[in-house]
Specification:
The chain is an all-alpha fold. It is built from 24 helices and no strands. α6 crosses α7. One of its GO terms (molecular function) is transmembrane transporter activity. Keywords: Cell membrane, Membrane, Transmembrane, Transmembrane helix, Transport. It is a multi-pass membrane protein.
């Protein structure tokens, strides 16, 4: 019994920490907001340079291991082969890592940068170039390299070295078995649980608001708390049910279906949209993205105004680092049998390319309405200010607009469910001592905790502070991920190649 309690200490401590955070954020929302804003402002102001450097380090690390002499090593035994087809694998990792964010920001972010650029006049061709380049930077190769650090290292230790499915397992070559199984390892896993819960709950809330906005725009359903609670309940039943049925059944089926829906939506939007502008934006955006990559990736003013950087780039980098344990653990779980090179190509390069295509299509749909005068600058500013509505406002201005809005709503719900059920699965792994196939009781419990917290925060209007505090709490993961890179290199050098 004592041993079982010891094994579940991560679970119990995480529950207590999350309960305290939930009560504080809901019951004392004002003080929670002040503390979270102050913590995040301090970290991004004083350590902005570290966030920027860290993302470059993660990219160099994954490219080094993929295209160097270790690229042919398999994440498993030498004779192991992938459990999932390339398409299913890509659908699972894309839906888990980025899908819901791209649907949410695909129209609104490029429009925001177009209307409020840095260094050029707003609502001009130069502003459009700035918008696309910025979107590609934020959703391109760097976030996926960040996810790949935990994913690659954990998949290697889980499937090739038979270690537990815990973030702390990665650090064993550096810290030794005693430390990783002791208080330090437990602390790492508790941080991973907290970051995952906070990330999924805020996404659940933001996704609910966008689904409600879509229903309001299309069917006149009011934007009220009662409707949002109803959406959370329905979505929760779907994502908990799919998590309980396992990766092979529920999660895989939803992910596969949504991949086809999202590709179909993308193609039709391209065909009904400004095709030449989309192609030009993509090619020009990629050129500027690659040409200015290092200066942009490391750009921080030592003496100038860094408000845009803090609001956008540093916020994104902190958010992606906060999601790294959750997305990384899930990607590791579905990547057995892949070679290291195959893993990096599939997890870093392919999704980054797909994200840039998505941004070129949906960003151009919005910007084109401003360039052609179909929507006034006042209306475009409203779209940028309310990203949950922006997608539907823009799509309705094109042929088949109503149908496209319906499909976008379906895709949003499916991406939403894929992220949430992946999160439930990962939380269950992390709180059952790294079980690769955790018990359904844990999945149901974590699913219900997430849903109750999301409803509580919607009632308190406190989604943003929870998101902000999760970014601050995940700050130590920069150091943990540096350690993961070093531990992985140390372990892999012992391989006989």
């Amino acid at each position: 019994m004592e041993k079982r309690k010891q094994k579940n200490s991560v679970f119990y401590i995480s529950l207590i920490l999350i309960a305290i955070m939930a009560v504080w954020s809901v019951a004392f929302n004002e003080s929670f907001t002040k503390v979270s804003d102050a913590a995040f402002a301090f970290l991004t102001t004083d350590f902005g340079w570290l966030y920027l450097l860290a993302m470059i380090v993660f990219l160099v690390f994954v490219l080094y291991v993929a295209f160097g002499r270790y690229g042919k090593i398999r994440l498993g035994g030498d004779d192991s082969r992938p459990e999932y087809s390339n398409l299913t694998w890509f659908g699972l990792l894309f839906g888990c890592g980025m899908g819901v964010g791209l649907v949410f920001w695909g129209v609104a972010e490029p429009l925001t940068h177009y209307l409020n650029p840095v260094g050029v006049e707003s609502a001009t061709p130069e502003a459009a170039d700035f918008a696309m380049k910025s979107f590609f930077m934020h959703w391109g190769i760097l976030p996926w390299a960040n996810y790949a650090v935990i994913g690659l290292a954990l998949a290697y230790f889980m499937f090739r070295k038979n270690k537990k499915g815990l973030v702390s397992s990665i650090l064993e070559p550096l810290l030794g078995e005693k430390m990783t199984k002791g208080w330090l390892g437990k602390l790492v896993d508790i941080l991973a649980v907290f970051a995952t819960v906070a990330g999924i709950v805020t996404s659940l809330g933001l996704g609910t608001m966008q689904i409600n906005a879509g229903f309001n725009k299309l069917f006149g359903i009011p934007t009220t708390l009662l409707v949002q609670i109803g959406i959370v309940v329905v979505v929760s039943i779907l994502y908990i049910g799919s998590a309980v049925s396992g990766i092979e059944k529920g999660i895989k089926v939803i992910s596969d279906t949504n991949l086809y829906v999202a590709i179909g939506l993308l193609l039709v939007c391209f065909l009904v949209g400004p095709k030449i502008e989309i192609l030009d934006s993509f090619v020009n955006g990629i050129g500027q993205y690659i040409g200015d990559f290092i200066p942009d990736a490391l750009k921080v003013g030592a003496y100038g105004d860094n408000s845009w950087l803090g609001s956008w780039r540093l916020f994104y980098w902190a958010w992606f680092i906060a999601w790294a344990p959750f997305v990384g653990v899930f990607i590791a779980r579905i990547s057995k049998g892949r070679t290291i090179r195959e893993f990096v190509l599939g997890v870093v390069l392919v999704p980054a390319f797909a994200s840039c295509i998505w941004g070129a299509v949906f960003g151009s749909l919005g910007i084109n309405l401003g360039e052609t005068g179909i929507l006034s600058l006042d209306v475009l500013n409203e779209v940028a200010a309310t990203p949950e509505v922006g997608l539907f406002v823009v799509l309705q201005k094109y042929p088949l607009g109503f149908v496209l809005c319906i499909v976008a709503l379906v895709s949003l719900c499916a991406f939403f469910i894929t992220s949430a059920n992946s999160g439930v699965y990962v939380l269950s792994m992390l709180t059952t001592d790294g079980e690769i196939n955790p018990p359904n009781s844990k999945k149901i419990l974590w699913g219900m905790i997430q849903s109750v917290m999301a409803v509580g925060l919607l009632m308190a209007g406190g989604l943003k502070p929870l998101q902000t505090i999760s970014l601050a709490a995940a700050f130590p993961f920069i150091l943990i991920m540096f350690a993961a890179c070093a531990a992985f290199i140390k372990a892999i050098k012992k391989e006989k190649i």
